[in-house]
Amino acid sequence: MSDDNVTPMMAQYLEIKAQYADAILFYRMGDFYEMFFDDAVAAAEALDIALTKRGFHLGEAIPMCGVPVVAAEGHLLSLIRKGFRVAIAEQMEDPAEAKKRGSKSVVRRDVVRLVTPGTLTEDSLLEARRHNFLCAYAEVREDSALAWTDISTGELRVMPCPRARLSPELARLAPREVLVSENAAGDLRALIEDLGAAVTTMARAAYDSTGAEKRLCALWQVGTLDAFGSFERAELAAMGALVEYLDLTQRGKLPLLRAPQREALGGAMQIDAATRRNLEITAALSGGRAGSLLEAVDRTVTAGGARLLERRLSSPSRDLGQIRARHDAVELLLDQATLREDLREALRRVPDMDRALSRLALDRGGPRDLAAIRNGLSQAALIADQIAGVGSDLLASAAQGLRGNDDLISLLEQSLVDEPPLLARDGGFIAGGFDPELDDTRRLRDEGRGVIAGMQADYIERTGIQSLKIKHNNVLGYFIETTATHADKMLAPPLNEMFIHRQTTANQVRFTTVELSALETRILNAGNHALEIEKRHFATLRAAVLAAAGPVGLAAAGLAEIDVSASFADLAAAEDWVRPQVDASHAFTVISGRHAVVERALRRQGGAAFVANDCALTEDRTPAIWLLTGPNMAGKSTFLRQNALIALLAQAGAFVPARAAHIGLVSQLFSRVGAADDLARGRSTFMVEMVETAAILNQADDRALVILDEIGRGTATYDGLSIAWATLEHLHDVNRCRALFATHYHEMTALAGELTGVENATVAVKEWEGEVIFLHEVRRGAADRSYGVQVARLAGLPPAVIDRAKVVLEALEAGERAGGGKQKALIDDLPLFRAAPPPAPAVVKKESPIEARLREVQPDDLTPMEALKLIYEMKQALAG
Questions:
Q1: Is 635 annotated in some ligand binding site?
Q2: 568, 309 in Cβ contact below 8 A?
Q3: Does 633 show up as a binding residue in the annotation?
Q4: What single string gives the DSSP state of each residue in 371-397?
Q5: Distance from C-alpha of 632 to C-alpha of 783, rounded to nearest angstrom
Q6: Is 469 assigned to a binding site?
Q7: Which terminus has fewer CB within 10 Å in the chain: N or C?
Q8: What is the pLDDT of residues 748-762, one digit of tens each?
Q9: CATH number given to 8-115
Q10: Is 631 known as a binding-site position?
Q11: What is the per-residue pLDDT for 774?
Q12: Per-residue pLDDT tens digits for 269-297
């Protein structure tokens, strides 16, 4: 390659790359996708593959790397997870066609797809049990809206969303990518990226509401959107931006988007990002699903059910009718154990129809996706029969969507083999007997193989060459091959009249015959013809499935609903959970409540049983606040979290881990538990705590449930106490909500006597011979001390430090009792800023005869009578 001249191939590459400057370009070169220039450098580092060079451009060597086409999906996933976008440029014609235009002609290429975090459809790139949402946020004058879709399932939803609500709504959805207008990107980028989503900027024209309405009508082929509901201009703009972006990334092959569903702004319990993180609802603090509430309660057996469960936990309902209908379904399946198990067994055989349908719509599907639709609809019909006549409105409604697909099921059952291949180009997926023409063509193709074997045997007999074989490759087709030592015999009369020389290699000589060439033509035509027939059938079957996309989607949604109800019932039966009473009151009473995740962890570890506790925030009082005191490690944070999670589970439609629960509808759930800094944004632990507390105090209404732990601990004692004191007063006087407020500031317990809605509670401990024993029991009343020194001993601080801390603590407490003026004298008396002298050598205590005797005893080897004798022996020794 010349320094000064750009080759036609590189000119084509640069032209395509200019259109996708912000994406890595996968440039198809035969069996590889190749990358050049900066793309190659970035991709080689991200994928840990070799970086090489190919030719020169402007006097510089061109960096190059590549990945095999067959392994591209895994590399795509790695790049997407690391924040890259990938444009895939395929060869749009056969190289032979390009050569017809001249020896230097370049194969025509074009981008067929732009892969971004929010537009993934392949199973290998997605988590089967999680949604992959793409969101669009739009602001039109004073209105704003959020729209979101999962193109792998076709779901599309929209809701009004003021900018102040954008963060909690995005935290609820956990999208992979968010579209924003170029004029709002600067203000919103940090907020979106903090939630772990990629930000994509769209031109302002993409958010034009008038143009958006036309795009949406064209998408669903309707004259007006009135049949789908009434949408504000901002909602239309948000949905229109989604469609515009999908058209851009999918290069005109729009996914199968279902009719939009409009969500009310206050339809779900509001939970902000900090609360979701603190409560570990769908992901643990360490990252990932393990240790989260979702992992602890997920007993779904279908991918669609798992995704619905995550949505339910992320968006607990505020609709009492909906909540009660879900509880009714769970209760029915809990009571009818046989029905529940039969349903779960049938559901286990349900494939992921939503994603199969989406791949077929995008023309990325194969025969297995058709089989998934067939198998899913067949199971749906069986499940509909199982739940016919059950006394649950929710299950009956779900069952309605499982029927009515008999014609499609029959077509797919007759046309497809039981286990079809992944790709249509592999052939062999149309069942025998479905198409007589295909059967005849296959017979010719398959019998041709037998004829080849017979012809080989005949040639061996005629030549006497036992090593002679008839083989096939893509260059020569069928040919006769023999070793070079036998070739002279075939080139000499009389065999040379039959065998025609075609090729000589290092060790072999290849021939053909007129008979073999004629047979090859018939066989090859039969094979290609059979494959073409199957491809035509695939296109017909795909069209039939897409024509029934609506009913198939309803069936998939109904199966997911049944799966979630059955899984909640299975969970309640196995874990002894109860149906909560949820109503419009302000009540919050939990009897013997437990923490679902902690209890499960204790059981797995084979440790102690979880200690259940009551919580009664209301006794005909509004507001109702428990001020919780007690030492660290006593279980305060667990108690706070478990009650928040019980409220969340109840409104998600699940039963709850308790003996009884009465939950007045919770509009907002706020949690400020735990401590972490945010160094990337210059925030200390205390600043993060104050920001989260401010959000609670500014937003919580009288139906909110707030849990706060150790407010003010990140600053000086009196500063912290004053902040905690004022925060509690604000919750009581202004927010007037239900709250659990844990603190180490025992001075605050006096507020229970001044604020009518505040009541003291404490986590009980017991002291024995200088040790503290945590009972994990929550009782009414206030703690008299914090037991911090004892907890420090349990943590393993050196004995010298513990002894010194006791001395300082006693002196500080004595000084406080004597009056604040003693502080200077106290510092003079205690050498707080000088190293303490080394401790005296520990006195070795001599072992008593009783201790020596007990050391010899092996309890497991004692019989009951021997144990009783040992007790008498010890008692006599003490008396003597």
A1: yes
A2: no
A3: yes
A4: HHHHHHHHHHHHHHHHTTT-S-HHHHH
A5: 12
A6: no
A7: C
A8: 888 988 899 999 998
A9: 3.40.1170.10
A10: yes
A11: 67
A12: 999 988 999 999 999 988 888 999 999 99
